[in-house]
Every structure is written in C-alpha cells, then in structure tokens.
Amino acid sequence: MIKIGSLPILVLLSFLIGFFLGEDSLGGGKNDYLYHEKYFLDFKENFFYTFQNYGMDQINSNVRNSPLFYIVFSFFLKIGFDISHLKYLNLFIIFPLMFYFNNCIDVKYKGISLNIKLCFLSIILISPTVRTLLIWPYPFLWALTFFVISLYYYLKFENAVEKNDQIKNAYLNVFFLALSAYFTPNFSVFAIYFFYRYFLVYSLSKKIFNIFLLNLLLAFPAIYFIIVKDFYLFNSNVYVIDSSIKFNLSNKIIIITTIIFLFFLPVSPTFQKIRSLLLKKNFLNLKFFAILIFALLNIFYFNFLKNAGGGIFFHLSNILLGNHILIYIVFFVSLMFFYFLNLYNFNNILIFILFILYNMQFSIYYKYFDPLIMFIVLFLIKFSGDYRIELKKVFKKYLIFYMVFLGLNLAKIYISY
C-alpha cells in the first residue's frame, strides 16, 4: 500500500512524465494552445495593431480571455526566448498557486499537519485542468492563481485583529482579484461577493467607499473587455445558435448545479449522517415545495445542445439513455442534497448566482470549475447547523475523487459521444 508521505513524489513524477509526453487530460488543451499560439507572435511583431483588433475581426474572433496573458509572454519572445520555451516558463505559475493554497489552509484550518497539507498540494497536480494548462499554457491557470492569492488575503481579512491589518488585507484582496480578472474576465464577478462581505463589516463608511472605488478602478480593464469590446459574452460562439438557446438560464442552472454537486461530493457527510439528516427533515414545508417547483421549471425550459461541454452527467445521460433524464435526476438530487446539508443561506446562494454569471457564455466546460469549486467549498461556503469540514478526512476523499476524475479524463479520448 502506498504511504501518504510518498504521495507528493509519485504525483510529481506522474506530472513530469505527462509533461514530456505532452499529456492533454482535458482533451482540448493542446488544440487551444496551438490555436492561440499566434497571439504571442502577433503581439511580438505588431503590438498596437494586434491589441486594437484582438478578438474583433472575423479571423481572430474566437477568443475567450483578455490579451494580457499573450502580451506578457510576448515580452519574453522579444528579449530572445523561443516560443517553444514558453511551456517551461509557464511551469513557474504552479509555485505561487501551491504556496498561497497552503497559506489559505493555514489561515482557515488551524493545526493541520504537514503531511495533510502536502497531500492537498498533491491533489492540485492531479487536477486534469491544472496538469493540462501547465503543459499547454492558457490564461485560466494564471487567473486561478491570482484568485487563490485574493482568497488568502480575504481569509486574512476575516481573521485580522488590528483594524489597519484588516483594511490592508481587503485592499490586497481587491487588487489580486482584479489581476485575476485581467487574465480571465470570468473572475471579475467574485468582486460582488467580496464587496458584500466587506459591506457587512464596514456598512456605509469611508472604508467601504474606498474599497468600492478601488474595485472600480482596478476592474476597469475587465469591464472594458467584457462589455465594450463584447467579444466574450455575446459574439463568441462554439457554433451559431438561436438566442432562445444561447441565453437560456435554465441550461446554466441545471448544468452548473450538477458540476458543483460533482465537486462537492468529497466534502459530503457519511451515509449514516445523510440517513440521519433524511429522518430529521420535514418534506412537507414551503422550502421543499419551492425547490420542487424550481427544479420542474428549469427542467421544462432545458434545451442545452451537444458539443458545447455540459459536464459528465450531461454526457452520461446522452450516452447511456440517449436523452436528458439522468441529468434531470442528478439536478434534483443535487438540490435536495444541498437542502439536507442546510446550505441554502444567503452567502451560498450568492456564490451560486455568481457561478452563473461567471459562465455567461453558452458553452459550459468543467475546466473553468476545476479546481475552483474545491477552493470555494473549502474557504468560502458557509455551513449551517453542526456540520463542519474535517480536513483530515476530506483530503482522502478529494484524493480518491481526483484520481478517478483524472483517470476518466484520460480514458475519454477512447470514448465516442
């Protein structure tokens, strides 16, 4: 049996093998990199023309990120690096990601052993998204890293004793979240969550005004690329589709709920605990019927198309049954699962709404939620009642989950659907 202490070494070796073999466990990471590789060269050769026309002309309209990532890496090309070297430079982003993830654990969970933390860090390198985007450079991983840094400063804000330390951490959180949005505009929506949390502390005061102003100033580039240039939300398609499908919120609600449920499973309680919760719950109440009506309405309007992502349950439903029945069942089970865990509070509902806004484009790929949901669950979700995350138990479940998840992703290239 493999000892826990040897896990980081084995995971690192598996990644190094994957790196030199060109692993693409996401299935589209290599193609995305090769498609966007031209932007590194374009920014190197003609910066102003490329910046002005980025994502706006007919030829180069299929972009989903701000140009910052390509601008930064084009600088290395200008000082003599070859484009083949970018893959090696891209590897350095893993160090701040792991460093600040470890720091988040230290702040949120006290007294966690070094072995447990090393194992959690290893889980990051098992994530298909992290592995693929380390090997095939893409802006999302950089955006995710800066988001984790912003999470760290928010957690420091929550735990600060001195008022000066508190506001300093709030400013740092805002700064790194904005930097995250510069790389991938999706992350800008989480400014709403953090502002809400700061408002609970500062109410209508000079400090909350300063935080709002800093948010506005730093987020302006992200707002510019999302709204003004409009190459991200409305003009970028997987393929041409009718507006009634493209802007159908039920598609996003059902698929994103099932994706959240999937990544939430490792922190779920034991079967005995779930059974106990089932026995205690009274189904004949307004909350249960509201959930039932909410589920039925979204199922009625669901019309998501194939070949635009959808997550594992969507694909399984089509592969096994040839229809949407399975994903409907998982969607309803997900809603009830969150109900049993008393997760329907304002904090968590706000996070869910932000996940919808975070993925406003029609296509829904789980790479934008992995391992983001794990970070959100561990550090931002508010649990009610007597349920608490026990990190010593959760890391084993996440380890098993990600090992299976990675295996399925590596195997899916042999599955036709």
Q: What's the arrangement of secondary structure elements?
A:
Elements: H1 7-21, H2 29-45, H3 47-53, H4 68-78, H5 86-90, H6 94-108, H7 114-126, H8 128-135, H9 139-159, H10 163-183, H11 190-202, H12 206-228, H13 243-246, H14 249-264, H15 271-280, H16 286-301, H17 311-321, H18 325-340, H19 346-358, H20 372-379, H21 391-411
Provide a descriptive summary of the structure in words.
This protein has 417 residues and is mainly α. It folds into two domains: 4-228, no CATH class; 243-386, no CATH class. 68% of the residues lie in helices and 0% in strands. The chain contains 21 helices and no strands. It is globular, with a radius of gyration of 22 Å. The mean pLDDT is 86.
**Radius of gyration using CA atoms only:** 22 Å
Structural class: mainly alpha
Average pLDDT, all residues: 86
Characterize the largest beta sheet: strand count, sense, and whether it forms a barrel: none
Keyphrases for this structure?
417 residues; mainly alpha; 21 helices; 68% helix
Short summary:
This protein has 417 residues and is mainly α. It has helices at 7-21, 29-45, 47-53, 68-78, 86-90, 94-108, 114-126, 128-135, 139-159, 163-183, 190-202, 206-228, 243-246, 249-264, 271-280, 286-301, 311-321, 325-340, 346-358, 372-379, 391-411.
